[in-house]
Amino acid sequence: MPASVLYFFIIHGVLTFPDGSLTGHCTGSTAMAEAQKKQAVLRAEPAAEKTVNSRFCKVTINGRRELDVPAGKSLLTALRDEKILVPTVCRGRGICGVCKVKVLHGGGAILPTETPLLTKEEQRCNIRLSCQITVQNDIAVEIPEPVLSVREYDTVCTEIEELTYDMKRFRFELKNPPSMKFVAGQFVQLLCPRYKESSEAVYRAYSIASNPNDNGYIDLIIRKAPRGICTTWCFDYLKTGRSVRLSGPYGDFHLSDTDAPIICIAGGSGMAPFVSMLNAMRDIRSKRQVSYFFGGNTVRDLCLQEQMKIFESVLPGFMFIPVVARPAENERWSGQTGLVTEAVQRQFKDLSRHEGYLCGGPGMIDASIKVLKGLGMPDEKIYYDRFA
Amino acid sequence: MKESPQEKMLEEALRSSKLVAGGFMGTDSRHPARVIDEDWEQLQKCGFTPAQTARRMQELTDLAAPGLGNWLEAVPGRLQVKSEDFKGALVCPWSHPGLFAKRITTARRMDTGDQIVWTDLNLHMIAEHGFFEGRGAFFRIEPADIVRILFEGLT
Asked: Which residues in chain B have their CB less than 8 angstroms from residue A297's CB?
C-alpha cells in the first residue's frame, strides 16, 4: 500500500466520527500544542508521566448520571459494565433488536445493521441499538427508568415443584441482595451457566410468579422447550441447593390502578404473572372483578387448580375458568371445552368496560386480541406479555 | 478450498451450543456447505427446491396457528397440523437481523402416522440458506421426508 494512502486512512480513521464531524480533540489540537510549548518554557521540572492514549468519553444517562467510558467500547458493554443491565438476547451481536435506547445527542448516524430492527418511527426518534453504538464521543441517552433499577441477584434454588408433565415451579431464595422490589407482572432474567449442552452462559427471561410482598424469594414457572438452552438446564441439571444468578426486575406488564373489571387469558407458563398479581390482590383484599381464562390442550396441561380455588375463596370478585381444548377420552372433564378464546366469547357479549390482560405465545395473544376487540374492548385497554 | 474467516465463524456458530442446546449440526461431521449441497441435490431429485419446501411449510404453519396448539386438518382426512408457542426467541446463525419466535409446528400424515416438526427458525434457514440442519440435530429434517409427508399424495 502506498504511504500516502495509508496516511489518508490514519487521518480519517482516527480523527473523524461516524457522523462525519471532526472531533474536538482534532480542532483543538493546534491551540493545545501552543499552550504546551509555553508551559514547557516556564517549567523547570518535567511533569510526572501520564499515559493519555486512552481517551474517555462522557455518557450521560437521563440527564443526571454521568459515566466516563473509554472510547471504543460499545455502549451496551459500557452500560452493563456499570451494572446498567439493558436487556439483550443476542449478547450484542446486533441481531435481536432488544437493547434499544434513545440517543439524545452523539452516537453518530444510525448504522445499516440497525435499520432492519428499528421502525421508521423509532429511527425518527433516534432510538438506537446500544450494542451497535461505539462510544467515540460524548453521548446523552435516555433509558427507561425501570431498567436503571435492574440489579443482579445471587440466589439459591430452594424448591422445585412439578406442576405438569412439562412445567415446573422453581423457587430462588435471594441472598445478595436479600430482597427484590418488583411489581406483579414483571420478569427476571436467569443466568444459565455453561454446561454440557451449552458452550456459553446465557440469560433467559421468565415472568415472576411469586408475591411482590414476599420479596425474599422469586418463584418462576418454566415450561420445557425442546432444545431450549436454559429450560433444558433448569429441568435436567438444576438441583435444589444450587446457586443461581438472576437479574431484574424487567418489564412494564402490570395491573392498572383502576377498578375496571378484568379479563385475564393465559396458557402454559403464561400462568406465572397472574399468580403474582392474584397474590398481590389478595394482600390488599381487592374486590375487583377478575375472570381468569386458562387454556390447555388436554386436562394434563392444567396446573395450580387448587391454588386458584384458594384465590376464589379469598378474592370475592375472582373467577377461574380452566378451558380444555380437547379432553382425552380417558380424562374426566366437566369444565369448559374448546379454545380459550371461544370460552371468552361464550361468557361475554360486551367487554367495552373491561380491561384485558394476556400472557402467552404470539398465536394466543393475537387470537385473544381479535376476540377482545370484537367484543368491544378498546385497544388501549388490552395489556399483554407476549412470549418471545 | 480454504475457509474464509466468516465461514469459520459460521461453522463454529452452527456446531456450538451458543444459540440452541446441542447446536444445529448434531453429530454431522460434514462441512455445513456440503450438508447444504447434498440436501439440495436430494430435494432436486424429488423435484423440489428449498424455496418451494419452505413455502409449503410456512403455509402449514399459518394454517396451524389458529389452533393454538391443537390439531387441525390441513388436508381433510390426510394431513394434520398443529403449532405450539414456547417462551423465548431464537436468532439466525447467519446473523440475519431479527428474532424468531419459539414456535414449533408439527405436521402428521393421518394415513401413516408419520410426522415432522419444525420451528420458525427452520423455515427461515431453509428458505434463505437451504439449511435443513446436520444429521443428529434435534430439528434435522430429511428433505425426502418433507416431500413424502407434505407433498406426496396430497394433491
From this structure: 69-70
Calculate the alpha carbon distances from A385 to A127, A176, A269, A307, A365 in Å: 22, 28, 11, 22, 8
Q: Tell me where in chain A the CATH 2.40.30.10 domain(s) lie.
A: 150-250
pTM for the model stands at: 0.81
Q: With bands split at pLDDT 50, 70 and 90, how would you rate the model's confidence at B3?
A: confident
Burial of B25 (0-12, 13-18, 19+ CB in 10 A): buried
Please choose, from the candidates B19, B4, B39, the residue with its C-alpha nearest in 3D space to the C-alpha of residue B132.
B39
> Which are the contacts of A181, defined by CB distance < 8 A and separation ≥ 6?
A149, A212, A215, A249
- β-pair type (A355-360, A382-386): parallel
A113: closest chain B residue by CA: B97
Query: Could you tell me which of A147, A152, A168 has the C-alpha nearest to residue A244?
Result: A152
Residues A95, B97: C-beta atoms closer than 8 Å? yes
CB within 8 Å: A225 and B85: no
Mind telling me how many Å the CA of A308 is from chain B's nearest CA?
23
Which residues, numbered 70 to 129 in chain B, qualify as contacts with chain A under a Cβ-Cβ cut-off of 8 Å?
70-71, 83-89, 91-92, 95-99, 101-104, 117
List the grid coordinates of A49.
Answer: 508521566
The dihedral sign for the CA sequence A359, A364, A370, A374: negative
Average pLDDT by stretches of 10, chain A with 388 residues: 33 29 36 50 59 77 94 93 87 86 94 91 95 94 90 97 97 97 94 87 92 95 92 96 96 94 96 97 96 95 96 97 91 92 97 97 93 97 89
As for the ipTM of the complex, it is: 0.82
Chain A residues in contact with B66 (beta carbon < 8 A): 363, 367
Out of B18, B22, B66, closest to residue A227 by CB: B22
Q: Which part of chain A has CATH 3.10.20.30?
A: 54-148
What is the secondary structure of A257-271 as a DSSP string? Answer: SS---EEEEEEGGGH
A54-148: which CATH topology? Ubiquitin-like (UB roll) (3.10.20)
Cell numbers for B71: 390439531
A150-250 CATH:
2.40.30.10
Which of the two residues, A304 and B154, has the higher pLDDT score?
Answer: A304
The whole-angstrom separation of Cα A33 and Cα A311 is: 74
pLDDT at residue number A19: 34
**H helices, E strands: number in chain A:** 11, 17
Interchain pair B97, A113: CB under 8 A: yes
